[in-house]
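Q: May I have one protein plus its fold?
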Amino acid sequence: MGNQRVNAKRVKKEDNHFLLTIWLGGTAMGWFRSPLRITLLVGGSIIVFIVALVGYNRYQDAQKRAELYAVARLFGYTDGALMSEYQSCYDVIPHCSLSLVYTTSYSQEIFRQRIQASGMSLILTNADYDRALFTDLNAIARVSFAVNGKTAPDASEYPLYEAWITSSQETSDFTIIFFNLASTGGKFTVAGQPVHGNLMQVKIQTR
């Protein structure tokens, strides 16, 4: 008699569990049959994804910026020497870079010594005359950079630059450029104020 009561309770409990499962399943299916609820679910998921992506990108940008300033300090950067910080993006080979341009008392020889002492591996080096710095500062950074009063100088007025692309296991790849302003004998100005010494540009790829 006792066993019959236990069995009856067990059957009733199992029946209740079965009915609850059916009810929950039916409720869930009914919820997902609602177009509005599906739209809210999908829309909410997209919003959460976008917020997470934006947060991650901001974190990555902050990390890259910290790396950029750390490397610039290895090459004589001080806050008082800053001329411009700007981001540039290109479509031909899609990428974006964050750049620092600052004045320096380095000579070309000291610059090369600092490159060698940095312990970074050299991927590529190049030396030439180019107007790229004028384009970057005037068109992208919106900083008036001129030589002999001209923001679009003649080719003979371009400063000699020496660019090194470096890499290390601890940091990202950097492009470090030394601009030998004294090589032209011209008078360089930023926002109408004379530039003393030479210029350095350090850039890191952010995208």
Observations:
- Residues 13 and 131 are 83 Å apart (CA to CA).
- The beta strands are 82-90, 95-104, 121-129, 145-147, 160-167, 174-180, 188-190, 193-194, 198-205.
- The chain has four helices and nine strands.
